[in-house]
Write a structure and sequence with these properties.
about 325 residues; alpha/beta; Rossmann fold; 2 domains; 5-stranded mixed sheet; 4-stranded parallel sheet; about 15% strand
């Protein structure tokens, strides 16, 4: 049979059996291949049954796609959803135990670019273990990762539902903030020293997506150190802080000595769930909704979280 005839037969099989083309192709003995964030081709010959995730965002994605039961390893920081805690822990996020990783005999490893040593990825690939590396820096990157990982796991239908939901919620936010006055924001990721989200960071991309202006946008690095003098000079409307640095009233107290700052005067200093905001994955759209509400609390139709935020500020 010619290759053309084989493909036509495969398409007919898809139509009559309800299989996706990718799944039918894989079941015919041909691999499914995608390119990861680094441009490296990653191939699997069968549906992965033993998956190891080296990043919380990727662990969340596997569960969201309905393949959580295939996980045989995750890092200590992979704590969502609750079922992830039942997956064997193979070590710290930035330093997983290589021996435990290999002993699990994975047929697919999902890894982040940031925090994982390149030599660990190289060692796995030399052992012929497929490794998909994620380097998501914005929502479009996240969408690509969802699409690609879903292809490898034969979960295209589940991915379609996730992507449709993300896009509808994203479109709603864009429509609500379009044309509205830009709110200036400082996103603090470290307090001592003061480290903020710069223009090339994932959090910086979320500020732009939510209709805000990052006062550190001019800084051409991901997470630069910032001086308090620079904060005073730019005087942001809102100061956002990851909750691993402070919580609630403590966040405001750290800035009370700078009463001349607009964000202090107007009680617009807020802590945000670090796990939700800093993990580029399926829950990012929820973080974006919360961020848009903080930047535009008076815009009719912003997510209901804005009402909770306003009430919280009044009660301080």
């Amino acid at each position: 049979m010619s290759f053309r005839g084989f493909v036509l037969g495969l398409l007919a099989l898809c139509i009559y059996s309800g299989l996706s083309f990718e799944k039918a192709w894989a079941e015919s003995g041909h691999p499914i291949c995608v390119k990861d964030s680094m441009g490296v081709q990653v191939c699997v010959h069968d549906t992965p049954k033993k998956i190891i995730s080296l990043a919380p965002s990727l662990t969340e994605l596997v569960f969201e796609l309905g393949a959580g039961s295939s996980l045989v390893g995750r890092t200590t920081r992979c704590n969502f959803p609750d079922d992830a805690k039942n997956v064997p822990d193979i070590g710290a996020y930035m330093k997983p135990d290589f021996e435990k990783l290999v002993a699990a005999r994975p047929d697919l490893v999902l890894a982040p670019k940031t925090g994982i040593r390149p030599e660990l990825i190289d060692r796995l690939r030399r052992l012929k273990i497929p490794v998909y590396v994620d380097d998501s820096l914005n929502i479009e990157d996240i969408r690509n990762v969802i699409t690609n990982v879903a292809k490898l796991l034969r979960k295209e239908n589940e991915a379609g539902q996730i992507l449709d939901d993300m896009q509808s919620r994203r479109d709603r936010i864009n429509k609500l903030v379009k044309g509205k006055e830009k709110t200036t924001a400082l996103f603090v990721v470290g307090v001592r020293p003061l480290v903020v989200a710069g223009s090339k960071s994932f959090l910086g991309s979320l500020i732009r997506e939510a209709g805000g202006v990052n006062i550190a946008e001019r800084v051409d690095v991901e997470y630069p150190k910032f001086s308090i003098e620079e904060v005073i000079r730019t005087n942001p409307d809102v100061i956002l802080i990851l909750d691993k640095e402070c919580h609630g009233e403590d966040c405001l107290n750290q800035w009370k000595n700078h009463i001349h700052l607009k964000a202090v005067q107007e009680n617009r200093i807020h802590d945000l769930d670090a796990d939700l905001m800093s993990r580029p994955g399926v829950r990012t759209i929820e973080g974006l909704e919360k961020l848009s509400a903080l930047l535009h609390p008076n815009v009719p139709g912003t997510p209901e979280i804005s009402r909770e935020i306003r009430n919280s500020a009044k009660n301080r």
